Amino acid sequence: MNTQPQRFAPDDAATKMKLGNPKSESLKAYEQQQTIILIGDVDEANNHLRSIGSNSVIGFDSEFKQSVKDKRGKVCTVQLTTDDNTYVVDMTRFDGCPAELRRILEDPTIVKAGTGLHCDGKIISECFSIDVKNCQDLGCMIRIAFPIHYQDTTSPLSLQQMVADVLHRDLKKDNRMADWELGLRDNREGRPLDSMLLYAALDAQAGLELHYQLVAAIAMTAQQRKVDIPIDWYTYDCYKGKAARMETDIHNKIVFWSWALCPWYVGGKFSNFWK
Questions:
Q1: Contact (CB, 8 A) for 105 and 81
Q2: Are residues 75 and 102 in contact, defined by beta-carbon separation less than 8 angstroms?
Q3: Could you read off the pLDDT tens digit of each residue along the chain, which spans 275 residues?
Q4: How many CB atoms lie within 10 A of CB 259?
């Protein structure tokens, strides 16, 4: 008699989100549907970013240059995607952080969806003394949405792989080694460098679409398993460069976030989700 517990397959529940090989098509749909806005001065930043209000959900990413000498990073661009627009903020043109961008990053009601956001948050904290709030990590979400598929995966998942698995698209990355510290404009003509601008925008755009799909998949997982999946399994604040829980303890002290919050995560892998 088979005594093994029956494993739940979220791939069966999430019928519209089956994992598989990516199609040959790239994310060209974004180029047609999204307006990419390059922001290079304070007035532009504050005027455009004011449209992102409280309780919004945005795709979030940044590009930075790591210093070998002092091991500190320099934020070069910040990308924010809404349902209508992608804003690429060229931080090389600012002495500090524009007020509206700071407001968005620090607003605990605005969801920032992306990958490895604790790394982005660390650099942003070092450069601007900003704690990025309400980060929903796609790498955490995809493991919770599809725990069987990723149960033996302990290494970080790239956005490119997650887009291929869930959205079945090829996220091309042709400017991975670009020198972001030089900015996004041609120094001779002052025009935007289109290839770098598109590269910068794509991660935030793909992150937002992937987030919507994973929210739906997590809901399906919770419904079929008849369990509650709290958002703090995959949501954290970036506090001084570290991932922290969004709520403090009874003594109003910061509590740092870890995978231990998710009871499915045992021994460095998802091995407990069917119990």
A1: no
A2: no
A3: 333 323 334 444 443 444 444 333 334 444 446 788 999 899 999 999 999 999 999 999 998 876 544 555 688 899 999 999 999 999 988 989 999 999 999 999 999 999 989 889 989 998 999 999 999 999 989 988 988 787 766 677 889 999 999 998 888 765 554 554 545 554 444 444 567 788 888 899 999 999 999 999 999 988 888 888 999 899 999 887 788 887 766 556 777 787 777 777 776 666 666 54
A4: 15
Run of H or E residues at 36: strand 35-39
Domain architecture of the chain: domains with CATH:
10-270 (3.30.420.10)
Residue among 6, 8, 4, 53 nearest 151 (CA) = 8
231-to-69, 87, 119 alpha-carbon distances in Å: 38, 26, 20
- Other C-beta atoms closer than 10 Å to the C-beta of 112 total 29
In 100-245, DSSP assigns E strands to 111-114, 135-137, 235-239, 242-244
What is the reported pTM? Answer: 0.80
β strands within 67-173, DSSP E: 73-81, 85-90, 111-114, 135-137
